[in-house]
Design a protein that fits this description.
Elements (H helix, E strand, L loop, with lengths): L1 H16 L16 H11 L21 H29 L22 H7 L2 H19 L22 H6 L18 H30 L29
Helix pairs in contact: 1-5, 3-7
Length: 249
């Protein structure tokens, strides 16, 4: 645990140390309100339109005000959608294929594709799990420290879903592709095309969230998702306890 704490501490330092001087970002404000959410909802789903049963859009998170709260919600949904899309594709791939090269210090490969992805997670070493969580922590901290690069925080006017460049990290630490448009494909697209792409991304993310939880539910609870009953692999662990086989808090 001391090693992990040290890694996380160093991550805080990396996120703020290797950055260019802050720029004036006052003119780049992209404020959003509940009314903007309602307008966006009509574009995302013309049938359902605006649906907020928990009244989250009427909240005032951390006393930051409406615009900051809406920015938090928009950024959070896009982030969760992207994670869900990666998880859905990963589930499909891991169920049929594993990388054949050595993945552990003893030279062995990853868990067999005959195991479900949940069982594969349980089978990997604890150190590998901590590596994954440390990377996630770094990416989260880098996102939160965007103002150090002259980019507004997502609660203060940044475009929802836009992730800070990793150029300072590339220049000073290690090569890494940007998470936001890593190959520059979107840079020269028309604004109308970019807007359509952002709408499609939110919808795809929502579908992926349903999809990955459908897989997890089908494996955990027999016949809970009839369409997946034929391919589900029963799992008796707990997906909400990632270190269940290692330790308990």
């Amino acid at each position: 645990m001391k090693i992990i704490a040290a890694l996380l501490t160093s991550t805080f330092g990396i996120a703020s140390a290797f950055v260019p001087a802050s720029q004036n970002v006052g003119s780049v404000r992209l404020s959003e309100s509940r009314a903007d959410l309602e307008e966006l909802a009509g574009k995302l789903n013309p049938i359902v339109k605006f649906y907020d049963p928990m009244a989250l859009a009427q909240g005032d998170f951390y006393d930051m005000g409406e615009e900051a709260t809406v920015g938090f919600l928009r950024h959070s949904e896009i982030k969760h959608g992207r994670v869900a899309m990666a998880a859905f594709i990963g589930y499909c791939v891991q169920s049929n294929f594993i990388f054949p090269w050595p993945q552990h210090m003893d030279g062995t490969t990853g868990p067999s594709a005959s195991l479900s992805p949940e069982q594969q997670w349980d089978a990997i070493p604890e150190g590998a799990k901590w590596q994954i969580f440390t990377l996630i922590a770094f990416l989260e901290i880098w996102d939160e420290c965007s103002s150090a690069q002259g980019m507004p925080h997502y609660t203060k006017g940044r475009m929802p879903g836009k992730y800070p460049t990793l150029q300072p990290f590339r220049d000073n630490v290690h090569f890494a592709l940007d998470l936001f448009d890593p190959f520059g494909f979107s840079k020269n697209r028309a604004e109308e095309a970019k807007a359509r792409g952002r709408i499609a991304e939110v919808n795809n993310g929502r579908l992926a969230m349903l999809g990955i939880f459908g897989f997890l539910s089908a494996d955990k609870i027999a016949d809970s998702v009839p369409a997946l009953s034929a391919i589900a692999i029963p799992y008796d662990g707990n997906c909400m306890i990632p270190f269940e086989g290692n330790f308990h808090l």
